[in-house]
Each structure stands twice: as structure tokens, then as C-alpha cells.
Specification:
The complex is a heterodimer of chains A (596) and B (367). Chain A is 26% helix and 34% strand. Chain A has 596 residues and is of the alpha+beta class. Chain B folds into two domains: 243 residues, tm_1862 like domain (pyruvate-formate lyase- activating enzyme); 77 residues, Arc Repressor Mutant, subunit A. In chain B, helix 1 runs parallel beside helix 2. The relative contact order of chain B is 0.11. The chains are: A alpha+beta (596), B alpha/beta (367).
Chain lengths: 596, 367
């Protein structure tokens, strides 16, 4: 155990995490310096088995300068704020973290957020400045930022180029020297942390484990602390390039276990595995069930595909236990499902996978957060679907979830970023100036604003320089109203949304205008309206299509004519009939991104 | 067998809106082409036809001698005793000389003139090779040669076209004695000059729709019935050859890029002159045998183009059987509910004013 080092690489997106991991695998000899083709071949292979070559953890044998052989367990962390909880669990499995900063970009919002998670988890941090090969590398500036913004010692900072390999050998030595070996006794009862899992169609859910004490081998009876459910271990092993079966896993080890767990809902990241006959062993602290933050309706384009969609969701849930879904019925769209996601990125990925991997023709409605609706009679409703809101007259007030956003931005762009945050109903909490060129803005902002287009806009007003990170920060009352959208005089419940009363007319007009550009012309006039209760706040008409004809029939070439019609018909299939109006998929999601 | 179509792919120049297969006219190529056509006809020796249509391209470019060789050759190979209609397409710039008289003497009794417009500006912007006087001369020459059935193509939505100019074009044509008008809306097709350089004064969709309606109204005032989406005629002057297309009838197409519908199959010759000249029997492609469901859908789509005649569901059921027709009838009735079709007993028709938006209906008709 004294020769094991468990560590993660943490960084802001695009600061070179994957490249560094590749270089480490290569320099330790685990992966030969291969051509891209071979690399890709092996990736395909790994994908078939349900994992990628960049597995959640990889066991790297390494002979250090002291002549001893070490086992380095590199544990990957998800790279997006949606998965902060998952990151914190992965870090919990480590004793140390390599904090990577791009020498041309400096410390950014997720650098700080990830570093703080690692510090909170009590990890030894090795600060590393990457991309020193680039001509515009600002090594001294980065060093200063790591010192002033995170309190890391300048003398501890390593300089590497993950691209050309410079400094990586020193980094490997530092990992061995600076990161403490795992503690914990093999003779104590079993205690493992689940920090990730994947689904194998033949072997069920396979959790990724960090063993803190005791040992685990096939035939062992285990228990999940959160549910009390028991399973028998069939196989244990670790990740090299693929799954490598081993006799057992000991305290300090990182690996996987197969226990024929059929239902992905059984395994939760952060849960603790103990021996079934030692149920008294305490859980690793900090476990919680991941909570969906963003909800949307998901409907089959063809109403009769409802059952097919249900079956696909059942399968999908096996792969991604963090999505939730339940049946939902929309007057406009028919039967479908309400799905909940960890965040916007998670939603986009999940919907894309449903379309591609699970071959579902679906439309997704505008995403919504969970509102607290306080009725006049005092009842509190937690509602994630605007169409389920009680009539306006019965509502005392509405509260919405807040996030605390930390934006790091060059001083030149502080003004536009603050204007944007103010416009998005943000409340400034703090401004810090870690150095003379950059500012850290801390805002409390409604989550609902974040899930529309805040991040895109932030990038745009700062010319791409701002970075951000956020965490949930309770609820706040707001002057919010439900806006209904009427298409061809009928309300389309799936298009309803909650918005601040102030500016609702302007936004309503923008939205109606966008809708008028998205819905194709029909043979009849289609009025589009936005309304709060019975008050219409915006209206626009789609005028009828006057010409849609194939006129010339060249020498009786009917086939060509029919093929053109069939092509047109294919286009129609991508649309949802709402009353007599064909509404394209884009109409539902495009409404999210409205320019002010 | 009913219709015989002969395709002549030669043109003097490419019009700016045209994406159809055509080749610059070279005398030597045209000679060889006539030989190839007759060689292809050899393989269908003895078939009988009731209509003949020589289209293009620009058939009038052939000149009298080649036309005579072609038509006489067809008479020798096919049974044309019951021929009810024979049409030749001509372009104004090549309708002079004795071509029309020759055509008449060969038994051709209907001429279709590619007029498009009588406005000089519009003709120039569309890349036409003739002026308005040549159109009037061609109509005069046709009458003089004995033709009573004179059709003109008129393009709707040409760059710079106005209601006034269109009205003027139509009035001159009517006064000149035409009894059939094919009115086509200009559409920008890929690969055409217009698709690369969209003219700034190209009428928009709504304007096109207004222009088209004006044309229909003007022609109606002079007794022309709007019998098919793009075709208007004085009573009794409808084009029999094209009616056969719309009624789902059989026809044989000879020549490059010519389409056929015989024995339940649709096929087309490749648009390749070189290969055709080498071996006319080698270029048949895109053979298609439709299953019954699609065949019913296709015929329904075609028959609905006939605005007055419409689609008689009982008549079709007599040929396809009730099962196939029930599914069609359900689709059609749904369109009736949405007021996109009109039903009168057994007959379905496009509703008044529905011709120009018929694609929206047809996509649901084809099933």
C-alpha cells in the first residue's frame, strides 16, 4: 500500500487535462507511443465494452527514480459544472490532485472551483503550469495567480508541456514524493466508495471503487449503505487498458467490481460498500442522491411512438442513473415524459443520446427549473412544469432557485459582464481583484437565467475571456408570471414558461417573432400570441403560403415529381402536429435562446 | 399503349431558369441522333399509339429534313392509324422557313410555342434567344401553315414581370389566336444561371401567386378553362398527350432523358448523348415498379392535378380494388376535413384557388 498513489488531474476545460493524461500513459510505458489510427482502433474496441480508453481510472505501474515500483491510480473527473458532485466524489477517492493551468490562459473559474473541491477533500495539491511550449505562455503571471488566488506556494509549481513531454518526468516524481500513500488497514472491515459506474449489457452495473479498508474478492457478500441492498461479488479487478481481472482489491486500491447488479438505480455515486456481515461500518461522509436541477418535457413526434419512447427511457436509465423521468400528458403534444437532469449540459447530452443511440424521434420542450409556488391558502407546491401551475389568482407568490456564480474576467470586460448579470436579474455579492488585470465577480443569479443563454452571452460579451462556475444557493421570491403561448388561437401547454413580470412583453414579442420564423407557412393564417392569463402581451401572424407547386412536368417524368414530394414529406415527419399546425422540433428548443 | 414522346435535347442556348438536359445543336450530332432515335424505335416495332409529342429541348432546331425523316420513320415503325393528336414544340427563333409547313404535311396538327413572354425586357433577362416579334411571327406562320391547335408556354414570375406586362403578353397571344396556354411558375432550380445569380427583381412567392391568379382570370374572361394546375385551354383544346400523363396512363419515351410508363414500370433513359448515340438501347435507367399502395398514391396525386375532372374514388376502386382505395379515401377525407380538398360525391378535387399550393396537399395524398 505504501507504493500506491491515488490522484486526479483537475483543470478548467481545455487546459490540457487529456493531453497530460495521454503523455503520462505513454511515458510510463502503459501505452506505446502509437499512431492515431491504432489509438482510435482501441477506442472503438473499448467503447463496445462500455468504457472508453480514458477510463474513469487507470492503473499505471511506474518505476521511480528511487528504484522502487509504484502503482499510480489516475482517477478522471467530469469536466463540467453540472457534475460538481461527481467531481467531489472522484476527488474523495484520491489523496492528491494535479492542478493544471494553461500558461496562456491563467487561472480560470473552474480552476478555482476544482481546486477548492480538492482542498475541501483534504488532498495534497500539485500545481502545474501547462503549455509552456507556447510562445505566449505567461508562466510568471500564472504562478502569481496560483499564489494569490489559491494560496499555493510558488516554489511548489511545476512547469510542463503535455504536448512535447517537457517536465512530465518531474511531475511523475512529484506525484510519488508529494502525494501521501493511502492509509487504512487491510485487516479492518471492508469500506469502499463508489465514485462512478457504467452499465454492461451482459454483466449489469459495474461500480468503480476506491477501497478504504479491508479487501474485496469474488464470492464476498457486500451491502450498499444507502439502501441496505446486498449483492455477491462475482469478479473484481482494475482498469488498465480495459478491465483486468484480479484476485482481490485491498485497502488503498482503485478498481471495479461485478456483482450482477441489473438495475442502474441501485448504484449511486458517493454510496459506500461494506461487507454484508459488517453492516455497522460507517459510510464515507458526504453521500447524497444527485438531484435533478433542470426539467423538460420529452414527446414522441409521432404520438403512437409513446410506448417505444418509454422502453428507450427504461434502457437509457440503466446507463445513466442520474436522469429521472415520469409520464406526462400534454393537451397539445399528447402523451410523453417529464425528464429531469443535473444541468443543461447533462440535458443536451441525454437528449442527443436518446436521438442517436436510442433512435427516438422526439421533441423536447423548453427546460424549466423547480419553482416553489406558495398558494394563497399557504400550500407550497414544488413545480417543474409551468403548465401545472395553479391559476394566477390562487398564487400568493412564486420563489425560484438561485445559484451563486463566480465569474473570472479580464478587467476590460468587467463592465459588459456586470451589465449582462444585472440584466439577467443577478445581485452582485462581491467583486475581488486578485491581480491588476482580472476581476472575480460573484453574483446571485436565478438558475432559470443560467439555463437559457447566460453562458453563451457571457462568452460573447467578454469575447470568450470570461470563465464561470456556479453552485446552488437556495430560493428567492420573484415577481414571476406564467406566460402562455397560443398557436392558431389554441394554447400550447408545452410552450408555457415562467418569466419575470418586468420585461415580459418585450420578451414575449421576441419569442413570438422567433416562433413566427420557425413555424413554416401553412395554407391558412396562423395567429401566434403570448398571453399572461387573459391578457395578450404579444401577437404576430404567419401569413398563408401562397405558392407550393411543382408545375412543369418534363416529358412525363412523374418519378421525379413524386420523389420531390416524398422529400418534402420527409421534412414534414420531423414536425409535430399541434392542432392543424405543423411545428418543427427546433421551435421548442429555439425558444430558449432569445436575444434581449 | 397510348402516348409516344420523342425527346429532342438540342437547344441554341441555355435559358437562365432551365435545369433540363440540353445540348448545343450541331448538325452532325442531330443527324446521328435521328438515326439513334429510329434505332431505339426499332426495338418497339409495331406498338400502337394514340398521341405523339415531340418535345425538348428545341425540336424545331432539327429543321425540315430531319423532322421529316424522324416522323416518317415513326410512321413506318409504329401503328399510328388511331393517332388523335400529334404535337411538336417549337421555339420562336427556329420556327421560320418551311418547318411548320413540313410539320403540318407530316400529319402534325398541334404546335406548342415556347413564347414565355412578349415583353422584351423579360425575355432578355430570362436568357431567351428570341424577341417578342418572333413569337408573333411564329404564331402567324403556324396559322398560315394550317395549324388550328396552337399552344404557348407562358412563364409566371419572370424577373421584372408585372401584372401589367403579363396582362399585355396574354392579350396579344389571345388575339393572335392561341387556344391553349401552359402557364408555369418560375422556380429557381439548382445548377441554373438563376440559382447562381438571383435576379434582384425576381417576384417573390406572394407576387408570383398574384401574377398567376391574374393570368388565370384574364384567360378565363376569354373562355379558357383552368383544366390542369399549369394548363388552360378553350373547350375541346386540352392536350390529350398530357391528359394521359395525369390520368396515370401508359406512354413510351424515346431519346435521351425521356421517361416512360409501360407495363406497370416507370423508367427513364439516361441524360447522356454520347452513350445514346453509341447504343440507344443501353441507357435505360431508374426502372421503378411501384407497390400498389404507392401506385395508388401516385395516381391520386396525378389525377388531383386535373382541377375540373378530379379524382373519382369509385372509378379508381374499380381498377385497384376496395382495400387499396379505402386507405386512400381515409387520407383524402382527412384533407377534406382540413379544407385542403373538396369532395363532391365520389369525386375529390383541389378547392378553388388550391392549384398553386397543391404540394401541401399532395404530400399527404401520396401516402
Amino acid at each position: 500500500m505504501i507504493n500506491i498513489r491515488n490522484f486526479s488531474i483537475i483543470a478548467h476545460i481545455d487546459h490540457g487535462k487529456s493531453t497530460l493524461a495521454d503523455r503520462i500513459l505513454e511515458m510510463t510505458g502503459l501505452v506505446r507511443k502509437t499512431s492515431m489510427d491504432q489509438m482510435l482502433d482501441s477506442m472503438d474496441l473499448e467503447r463496445e465494452r462500455g468504457i472508453t480508453i480514458k477510463a474513469k481510472s487507470v492503473r499505471i505501474p511506474y518505476v521511480a527514480a528511487d528504484g522502487n515500483e509504484y502503482i499510480l491510480n489516475l482517477i478522471d473527473t467530469p469536466g463540467h459544472v453540472d457534475f460538481n458532485y461527481e467531481v467531489s466524489r472522484s476527488l474523495k477517492a484520491c489523496e492528491g490532485a494535479v492542478l493544471l493551468v494553461d500558461a496562456t490562459q491563467g487561472v480560470e473559474a473552474q480552476t478555482i472551483a476544482n481546486a477548492n473541491l480538492a482542498i475541501d477533500a483534504g488532498l495534497k495539491i500539485i500545481p502545474v503550469i501547462n503549455k509552456i511550449d507556447l510562445p505566449n505562455a505567461m508562466i510568471d503571471d500564472c504562478s502569481l495567480q496560483l499564489y494569490t488566488m489559491l494560496g499555493l506556494g510558488i516554489e511548489d509549481i511545476l512547469h510542463v508541456s503535455a504536448k512535447d513531454g517537457r517536465g512530465v518526468a518531474d511531475l511523475l516524481e512529484a506525484i510519488v514524493e508529494r502525494i501521501p500513500p493511502p492509509s487504512g488497514s487491510v485487516s479492518d472491515p471492508l469500506k469502499c466508495l463508489i465514485f462512478d459506474s457504467f452499465f454492461d449489457p451482459y454483466r449489469g452495473v459495474i461500480p468503480h471503487l476506491r477501497v478504504f479498508s479491508g479487501h474485496l474478492s469474488s464470492g464476498d457478500k457486500i451491502m450498499l449503505k444507502s439502501s441496505g441492498r446486498e449483492f455477491e461479488i462475482e469478479e473484481v479487478g482494475y482498469f488498465s487498458l480495459g478491465l483486468i481481472q484480479s484476485e482481490n482489491l485491498h485497502a488503498g486500491d482503485v478498481g471495479y467490481a461485478v456483482a450482477l447488479i441489473r438495475n442502474a438505480g441501485e448504484i449511486h455515486v458517493g454510496d459506500t460498500i461494506v461487507a454484508a456481515d459488517h453492516a455497522e461500518v460507517s459510510a464515507v461522509p458526504g453521500f447524497r442522491l444527485s438531484q435533478p436541477m433542470v426539467y423538460c418535457g420529452v414527446y414522441p413526434i409521432i404520438t403512437s411512438d409513446y410506448a417505444k419512447l418509454g422502453a428507450a427511457l427504461d434502457k437509457f436509465k440503466l446507463n445513466d442513473s442520474s436522469v429521472v423521468y415520469e409520464k406526462e400528458n400534454s393537451a397539445a403534444l399528447g402523451y410523453g415524459y417529464r425528464m429531469g437532469f443535473l444541468g443543461m449540459l447533462h440535458m443536451e447530452i441525454a437528449l442527443e443520446r436518446l436521438k442517436r443511440e436510442y433512435e427516438q424521434d422526439i421533441i423536447a420542450t423548453m427546460p424549466s427549473v423547480i419553482y416553489r409556488v406558495i398558494r394563497k391558502d399557504g400550500e407550497v407546491l414544488m413545480l417543474d412544469n409551468p403548465s401545472k401551475f395553479p391559476p394566477e389568482g390562487e398564487i400568493d407568490h412564486i420563489e425560484e432557485p438561485l445559484i451563486r456564480v463566480r465569474i473570472i474576467v479580464p478587467s476590460d470586460y468587467v463592465g459588459p459582464c456586470m451589465e449582462l448579470s444585472d440584466a439577467k436579474r443577478g445581485v452582485l455579492v462581491d467583486i475581488e481583484h486578485p491581480d491588476d488585470r482580472r476581476a472575480i465577480l460573484v453574483y446571485d443569479l436565478p438558475l432559470a437565467e443560467m439555463i437559457t443563454d447566460f453562458y453563451d452571452r457571457l462568452k460573447s460579451v467578454s469575447r470568450g475571456y470570461a470563465s464561470m462556475d456556479y453552485e446552488m444557493n437556495g430560493y428567492r421570491a420573484g415577481d414571476l408570471v406564467k406566460v402562455d403561448i397560443l398557436v392558431n388561437n389554441g394554447p400550447v401547454d408545452a410552450l408555457s414558461y415562467i418569466a419575470p413580470r418586468e420585461g415580459s412583453a418585450v420578451r414575449g414579442r421576441a419569442l413570438i417573432h422567433k416562433l413566427s420564423k420557425t413555424i413554416p407557412k401553412h395554407l391558412f393564417k396562423i395567429p401566434l400570441q403570448a398571453a399572461i392569463g387573459s391578457q395578450v402581451i404579444a401577437r404576430e401572424d404567419i401569413f398563408p403560403r401562397r405558392k407550393d407547386v411543382l408545375a412543369k412536368c418534363y416529358g412525363g417524368d412523374i418519378t421525379r415529381k413524386r420523389k420531390l414530394l416524398e422529400k418534402q414529406k420527409e421534412g414534414k415527419k420531423k414536425m409535430k402536429m399541434v392542432g392543424f399546425v405543423e411545428v418543427p422540433q427546433e421551435a421548442f428548443l429555439s425558444l430558449m435562446k432569445i436575444e434581449d | 399503349m397510348r402516348g409516344l414522346y420523342i425527346h429532342i435535347p438540342f437547344c441554341v442556348s441555355k435559358c437562365f431558369y432551365c435545369d433540363f438536359y440540353s445540348i448545343t445543336a450541331v448538325p452532325e450530332l442531330m443527324d446521328r441522333y435521328i438515326d439513334a432515335l429510329l434505332a431505339e424505335a426499332d426495338s418497339y416495332m409495331g406498338l400502337s399509339f394514340t398521341t405523339l409529342y415531340i418535345g425538348g429541348g428545341t425540336p424545331s432546331l432539327l429543321g425540315s429534313a430531319r423532322l421529316a425523316k424522324l416522323v416518317e420513320g415513326l410512321w413506318r415503325r409504329f401503328d399510328l392509324e388511331d393517332l388523335q393528336e400529334a404535337t411538336i414544340e417549337v421555339n420562336p427563333e427556329s420556327a421560320g422557313g418551311d418547318l411548320l409547313a413540313t410539320a403540318y404535311n407530316l400529319g402534325i396538327r398541334r404546335v406548342s410555342i415556347g413564347a414565355q413572354s412578349l415583353n422584351e425586357d423579360e425575355l432578355r433577362k430570362a436568357g431567351r434567344a428570341h424577341d417578342s416579334q418572333q413569337v408573333q411571327d411564329a404564331i402567324g406562320a403556324a396559322s398560315h401553315s394550317g395549324f388550328h391547335n396552337i399552344s404557348v408556354d407562358v412563364m409566371i414570375g419572370l424577373p421584372g414581370q408585372t401584372e401589367q406586362s403579363l396582362c399585355n403578353t396574354l392579350n396579344i397571344l389571345i388575339a393572335a389566336g392561341v387556344n391553349h396556354v401552359s402557364a408555369y411558375c418560375l422556380s429557381i432550380e439548382e445548377g441554373t444561371v438563376f440559382s447562381r445569380f438571383i435576379p434582384p427583381d425576381l417576384p417573390g412567392e406572394d407576387d408570383q401567386a398574384c401574377l398567376f391568379q391574374s393570368a388565370v382570370d384574364i384567360l378565363a374572361e376569354h373562355g379558357f378553362a383552368h383544366y390542369e394546375i399549369s394548363n388552360l385551354a378553350l373547350p375541346g383544346s386540352e392536350c390529350l398527350h398530357n391528359l394521359n400523363y395525369w390520368r396515370g396512363g401508359e406512354y413510351l419515351g424515346l431519346g435521351t432523358a425521356a421517361a416512360s410508363h409501360t407495363g406497370g414500370e416507370r423508367f427513364r433513359n439516361a441524360a447522356c448523348l454520347e452513350r445514346y448515340l453509341e447504343d440507344p438501347s443501353s441507357i435505360r435507367e431508374a426502372v421503378e415498379r411501384l407497390d400498389e399502395g404507392r401506385k395508388v398514391g401516385e395516381e391520386a396525386m396525378l389525377r388531383l392535378r386535373l382541377l375540373a375532372e378530379g379524382l373519382d374514388i369509385t372509378e379508381m376502386a374499380g381498377r385497384y380494388g376496395m382495400d387499396a382505395l379505402n386507405r386512400l379515401e381515409i387520407r383524402l377525407d382527412q384533407l377534406v376535413n382540413r379544407q385542403m380538398l373538396a369532395r363532391d360525391g365520389d369525386v375529390f378535387r383541389l378547392p378553388p384557388g388550391g392549384a398553386l399550393t397543391s404540394n401541401s396537399v399532395f404530400v399527404d395524398v401520396i401516402g
